[in-house]
Structure formats: structure tokens, C-alpha cells
Amino acid sequence: MITFSLSRPYLAQFLKRYLFLALLTCAGAYYFYHGVQERISIRNRAHERIGVELKKDALDNLLRTARRDLRLITDHYQLKRILEHPSPDALHNFELDMLNLSAATKIYDQIRWIDESGYERVRIDYNNGKPSRTPEAELQDKSSRYYFMETHKLNAGAVYVSPLDLNIEHANLEFPHKPMLRIAAPVFDSLGGRRGIVVLNYFGAELLARFEKAGTEIAGRAMLLNPQGFWLNSPLPDKNRGFIFTPTTPGFSNHYPEIWERIKQAERGQFEDAAGVWTFDTLYPDRDDDARPDEVTANAWKIVSLLPSEALYGDRALFKPVLGSMLALLLLEGIGCWKLAGLRQSGKHLQAQLLQSEQNLHKLIAERTAQLQEAAALREQTENRLQLPNAALKAAANAVVITDNHAVIRWANPAFAALTGFPLEDALGKPPKDLVRSGLQSEAFYRALSISILGKRVWRGEIVNTHKDGFSYTESLTITPVGDRDGGITHFIAVKDNISERKHAETRLANLTRVYTLLSNINQAIVHLRDTDILLKEVCRIAVQDGGFGMAWVGWPDAGGKALVPAAFAGIDRETLEQLNNLAAPGDQNTYPANAAYNQACSVGSNDIERDPRTQAWRHKALALGYHSVLALPITVKGRVRGVFSLYAGTTGAFTNQAIKLLGDMADDIAFALDMDEAEHRR
């Protein structure tokens, strides 16, 4: 039996190898863990930016609607009649129209016209859903109120938006408290003389409720701040709306003075400090849609979100498995290096014992033993070095695929199976094109990809593939060629990431933006056009040219009231439109969306004409014209359906719930314009 003592050379050999392997192991574990945490933080930062933008868009849309209503009132023809030819009849008609506007919008606590002396001439109170006019004896002098003095100085077309504060009646705070936002504009007569102002008292609680509801997926704490840095809305219960009720309450600027100074200096941004990641954007309540992007006003609200540091990097439970794996590797490396050092030490003792009798033979055996030991040590070191990268690749969130130079899969991690739906045992030995190719990319696309990677260049891009279950998804793809010493290509490494949700979010945002543009342009047409026929033709034209719809038409009932006839249309000729809707044929017209919407007094449509069973009677006509989605909206005037506004789109899924709601509001605006035109004709 060979024995040896714990000598200094023995320890030196052990420490030399073990410390080197331990350093590599710790460095690999650190970079792996740090990389995963950094990816999570980048995702969370992006979510915070999107959430803040959604909250800003929600408030901006509400204020844009209020400014639109304000301009409708200042340009109202009954108000112009009062200014030019005052009469009780004109004043009464103006009050009736304002009562209808209050009942229709449901967002204004008061609608007022205050003359140039500061005295209320018309005041409509919402009264919890029962709008009423204020008798002349109860009208008040508002000449000393700040919003009258500020608005009365403005030029034509300008809008004043007040701070969010509590409503005051007869010099006293109204109780129960009503947070109120006053939106006002000056009124001018035909000679340019100032004739007072129009004021809309917007329900502040409704504005703040929309703010809280928008961007609910945001992980951080969302706050709404006024220009002085006070909280208008905050997830912190002890600070929520403190400025509205107690102006002396310390605000955000007092609690976070350095953060507030930094936020005030920029339009939008994102930065990190000890508390977490701050994301902010700026909203200008009184800036018009046609204002320049670089035009800055003093009335700037700040939308601020704080994502705490502990939430920035997501779930820290990954630290324990990584630490455990690293400690296990360190233990195995220590055992291996200890045994290796022991083997080397025992070899030296054996060489000393046999040197005298069989020196030549011992030398040959010692050399051979040393060679075998070195080979074993190298093999063990190689295996230890490969364990961590292999574990890291298997645990990676992105799908990783390694193919040979013939594009046959030789290795893939579990994330690849989760992405494609194909188990690893079914994927190995097959080309990726036989598993996931969707056929949506052309052969020219794949030829360009092959030329790039065969030329030893890294290829990056996006591609649509098919899951095992049959649905399509979009992935971000990076393909890296791996070469040998002779300059040839031996393998390709592909890294894949599913970005379908991000693409869908971008598409939804683009569709909503297009619908908002459509609504804005149609509302402008309603304001400026008085002739009904011209207005309807312009509405159809805007829907096709600005809204991006394939076709739009407005139908009125015929003399018998059994079928609809086109009153205006765009994107199609009359003959094709009548053939598409089978207007001249008898039978059940409710199979067509326009007639169904007219008879049922509700919106009727389909987001997939090709597969919807309700479209069987006419789908071949629509598909031949390139239409895949349809929505018919009733135009209801004073509770009676007067006509139908129909929209056709060239894509499936074009009408989301939010888009249908916005388009329904647009149909109500058209109905309001028709009602006003008919009232004018009756008068």
C-alpha cells in the first residue's frame, strides 16, 4: 500500500488547479445570472413606458373631446343669433340645445355662457343625470373668478384649462366636494367684439377615474401631478388628491425635490435612482391638436410612474438555483482536483520505491502514467467547463437551435420545444423548414437568408412560422455561422424569441390611432358642413381615405321602409354596392349587416366574413371585392333609427371592442348633426 503525507507541493498542485476552475465557474454563474436579470429589467422598463403613454393618451383623448364640444358651443348658430339679434326665442333654443348636449355627453357638471361683464347668461346643471336650466334670478356674477379673467384675455380660437380644484357656489365650497376642471374659450361677435366666455365644468372625478383605469397593466405606481408638483392622483392613499382639498399639504415636489426638478426639465424620459425606475411624460391640457410639438405652455401635467427596485428585476428566486448549481460544481471540482493531486503525489512515491531495481522500466511506466493522468485531467476539465454553458443554454428563455452545415437540427434547448410545440426528440435530425415553415415568406426571402449565412455573415430579422398546433407566430431570429480552422462552415446557431404579442400590440395601437384620426376628421366635417348630403359624402370619403377602410356607405330606407338605398358612398360604385347588398332582391334582408342594424337598432358586423356562418348568403361577393370585415352602425335620431353607416375593411379582426365603441360615438355625432340640421329646417 502506498502512503504519502500532506506536503506543500501536494497542496500547491491542488490549489493551482482548483482555484483556476473555481474562478471560471464563479465568473460564468455571475454573467449568466446578471444577463437574465438585465433582460427582465429591460422588459419591465419598456412596459412602464407603454403604460405611461397609455395613461397620457386616455387623458389627451378626454380633453380633446372637451375642446371639440367647447368649439361647437362657441360656433353655435343660436349663440351667434343671440349676439347679433338678441331675442327670448333664440336664448330659449340655445338653452334647449345645451340641455341636449349635457344629457348626451354626461361629463359636464355645468355648461355656461358668461357675458363680457362677467354675469352668467345661460347655465345648464347636470343634476345627476337630469339636466336643467338655471332660472334667471339664480344666475351669478362671476367677474371676479380667476377662470373668467384668464379666458376673457385670450384671442379667438384659444382655449383655457383651469387647475383641477373644488367647485364654488355663492362664494362657498360646494358639498359634497366636486373636483372640477374648467375648460373655457372666449366668444366674439361678427365684428370681432368680445362677448364673454363659454365654460364647461368637467367632472374631475371622471377624469381621474379614466386615468386610473388606463394602462392597468403597468407594474409601477402611476401618479398625476399638476404644474406645481402636487398630486392630483396617486396610488399612495395618504397623498391622493391632497392638493385639491388642502393646498398647503406637502406634494410630490416636497417629498421628492430632486426627482421633481429632474422631471420638470424634460418632456418625457426614464431614469433610475435608489428608489427604483422613474418613468414620466408631459400632458398639455390646453394645447390644441394643431399645435406644434415643440410648443410648450405653463399648464403642463406630469404623468409619473415609479417601479420600485425590488420589482425591476422580477423574480429573484433564480438566484438560489444558480447559487446551488455553482456550489455543486465547486464541490465536484474540489474533489476532482484533490484526487488528481493525490494521484500525482502517489506516482512520485512509487517512482522513488522502484527506481533502484527497475529504473528503465519504472521510467517508462511513469511516463505512460503521467500521460494518462494528463489526459484524464484534461478530459475532466473539459467536461467541467462544458457543464455550465450546457446548463445555461438549456435554462435560457430564448430558443436555441444548433444545426449542421446541411441545416439539420443536431441540438435544441427546452425553450425551442415550448416555442414550436415540437418535442425535442421529434425535432432532432430534421430541418427546421420541415417543422415550422409557414409559407408566408417567399423563396426569394430564403435565398437571401442562405446567401448571407453561407457567406459567414450573421443574419438578423423577423420571420413568421407555424406552431405544431397550426397557429402562426412571429419570432425574432438570429443565425450565426460557426467555422472550422480551414475556413469552412460546420454548424449554424439560431437564437429565437417569440415577439407575436409585441407585434399584435403595435398593430392594435396603429389601428386605434387610425380610428382616432378618422373620428377627428369626421368631427371637423360635422362642425364645418351644414348641408346633409355634402356632409354624408364627406364622411364616407374620410372613412376610406383617412380611416383606411376599403369601402363606406350611408343608407336611408326606401319609400316602403323595407330596404335601404345608398345616400352616400366611397370606395365603390353604386352598381357594385347594390349588387353587394342585394338591395333590389326580395326576401329576408336581415342577412345583410346594414338591414339588420337598421331593423334591430344596434351595431351588426363580422370580423371574419370568410368563416362567419351569418355571411353565407353574400360572402362570395364581399371576398371577391377584397373585404374581410364589416361593421354596420345605426344612425339614431331622438330614439328612432334614421339610417345606417356601414364600413368594410380588407383585413380580418379590424373592429375591436374599443374601435366599435369609438365608431359608435362617431355615428352618434352624425346623428346629432342630422338632428341639428332638421331642427334648423323646421325653424
UniProtKB/TrEMBL annotation:
- Residue ranges annotated as transmembrane are 15-33
Chief subcellular location: membrane
What SMART domains is this protein classified in? Answer: PAS (SM00091)
- The PAS domain extends over 392-430
Q: Where in the cell is it found?
A: Membrane
Superkingdom: Bacteria
Q: Which residues form the PAC domain?
A: 457-511
What are the alphabetically sorted keywords of the record?
Answer: ATP-binding, Kinase, Membrane, Nucleotide-binding, Phosphoprotein, Transferase, Transmembrane, Transmembrane helix, Two-component regulatory system
CDD domains the UniProt entry points to? PAS, PDC1_HK_sensor
Q: Which PROSITE patterns match?
A: PAC, PAS
Pfam families registered for this protein in UniProt? GAF_2, HK_sensor_dom_bact, PAS_9
The molecule here is called GAF domain-containing protein
